């Protein structure tokens, strides 16, 4: 299958992204002096920018790859929510899966950058778990969207309270009843709530924290033992672990493979996981085997690390690199 053919298949897919959404805000400027009021730099502001972040960046990656994403989340009913809706419209993303709640605060992460260095981050957020009424509303809303023609569901967890154990369990059950692919980019809080999913994608630190194990990346038997323990608990079909500069590890039943990272000029690793889960999911929807899925996702994750800030994958660049480095 050529890269062109794979990407053509991506355009036929509809994927629900369920998870914690946020706004990544950037204040960029130049530092030339220290404040006389306190020992802190003064930034002469040159540029401000707001971007979709969190699970919304997964949706942007899917969109960039030609698929149709449907973002499902609960945000606040505040100024941040108004800005979030504006950013969705600007990027031509549907808001049909977005619910507002007066009980919550829209997450905004503001990064202050001076002379190309991050000096400060300011977080505005609520991380309380959904209450029962919100869970009822959200599950009902997702069930309605799942009644459409959906190829896969991605859970993108940032520990902000949306993905409670009940929300996860009921939506996974709905997907399994409909034979819909379910992939997960987890965080620690609900690490073992994602039972019976298609693909589970922790990074190495999340795997160690989730299982309360301490081992080095070079210790392959320990890593593979950790995966065995994980699969005993989750009963997932595919385990896919990102290993930072060491590449990735993928396992399905008895099949397992280590894939080295491609050499890159790393600028920023932010958002790489969003790109990896997006590619992995789309690859599964078009029937690629786990080994090729991991190769493509690994390549894509490296490419976005060459960019500054949280940005979606460049489809044409990935297509060229894929044909040359993996399929050629």
Model description:
This protein is α/β, with parallel strands linked by helices. The protein has a single domain, classed as Ribokinase (UDP-N-acetylmuramoyl-L-alanine:D-glutamate ligase, 3-Layer(aba) Sandwich). The protein is built from ten helices and 13 strands. A nine-stranded mixed sheet has the order 5-4-1-8-9-10-11-12-13, sandwiched between helices. Helix 5 links the parallel strand 8 (about 150-155) and strand 9 (about 180-185). Helix 4 (about 130-145) packs parallel to helix 5 and helix 8 runs antiparallel to helix 9. The longest helix has 15 residues, at about 130-145. It is globular and about 65 Å long. The model has no long low-confidence stretch (mean pLDDT about 95).
In short:
With 328 residues, the protein is an alpha/beta fold. Helices cover 38% and strands 27% of the residues. The chain has 10 helices and 13 strands.
Throw out a few tags for this protein.
328 residues, alpha/beta, UDP-N-acetylmuramoyl-L-alanine:D-glutamate ligase, nine-stranded mixed sheet, four-stranded mixed sheet, 13 strands, globular
Structural class: alpha/beta
Kindly state the number of beta strands: 13
In helices, the fraction of residues equals 25-40%
Tally of DSSP helical segments: 10
CATH architecture, by name, is: 3-Layer(aba) Sandwich
Q: How would you state the average pLDDT, rounded?
A: 94
Question: Radius of gyration, Cα only, in angstroms?
Answer: 20 Å
Uncertain stretches: none
Largest beta-sheet characterization: 9 strands, mixed
Numbering strands along the chain, what is their spatial order in the largest sheet? Answer: 5-4-1-8-9-10-11-12-13
Shape: globular
Within CATH, the superfamily carries the name Ribokinase
Number of discrete domains: 1
* CATH-derived topology: UDP-N-acetylmuramoyl-L-alanine:D-glutamate ligase
Note the run of SSEs as H and E.
HEEEHEHEEEHEHEEHHEEEHHH
CATH class placement: Alpha Beta
């Amino acid at each position: 299958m050529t890269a062109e053919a794979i990407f053509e298949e991506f355009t036929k897919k509809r994927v629900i992204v369920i998870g914690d959404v946020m706004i990544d805000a950037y204040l960029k400027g130049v530092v030339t002096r220290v404040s006389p009021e306190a020992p802190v730099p003064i930034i002469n502001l040159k540029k401000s920018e707001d971007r979709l972040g969190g699970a919304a960046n997964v949706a942007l990656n899917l969109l960039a790859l030609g698929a149709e994403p449907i973002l499902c989340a609960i945000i606040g009913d505040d100024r941040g929510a108004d800005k979030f809706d504006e950013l969705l419209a600007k990027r031509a993303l549907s808001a049909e899966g977005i619910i507002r709640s007066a009980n919550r605060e829209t997450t905004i992460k503001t990064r202050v950058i001076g002379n190309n260095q991050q000096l400060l981050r300011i977080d505005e957020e609520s991380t309380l778990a959904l209450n029962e009424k919100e869970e009822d509303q959200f599950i009902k809303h997702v069930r309605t969207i799942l009644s459409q023609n959906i190829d896969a569901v991605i859970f993108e967890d940032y520990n902000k309270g949306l993905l409670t154990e009940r929300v996860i369990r009921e939506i996974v059950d709905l997907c399994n009843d409909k034979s819909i692919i379910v992939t997960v980019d987890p965080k620690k809080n609900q690490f073992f709530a994602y039972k019976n999913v298609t693909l589970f994608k922790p990074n190495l630190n999340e795997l160690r924290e989730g299982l309360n194990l301490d081992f080095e990346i070079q210790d392959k038997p320990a890593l593979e033992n950790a995966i065995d323990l994980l699969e005993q608990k989750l009963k997932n079909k595919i385990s896919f672990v990102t290993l930072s500069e060491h590449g990735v590890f993928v396992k399905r039943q008895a099949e397992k493979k280590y894939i080295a990272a491609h050499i890159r000029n790393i600028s920023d690793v932010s958002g790489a996981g969003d790109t990896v889960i997006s590619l992995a999911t789309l690859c599964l929807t078009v029937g690629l085997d786990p080994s090729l899925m991991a190769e493509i996702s690994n390549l894509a994750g490296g490419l976005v690390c060459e960019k500054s800030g949280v940005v979606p994958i460049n489809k044409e660049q990935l297509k060229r690199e894929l044909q040359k480095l993996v399929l050629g």
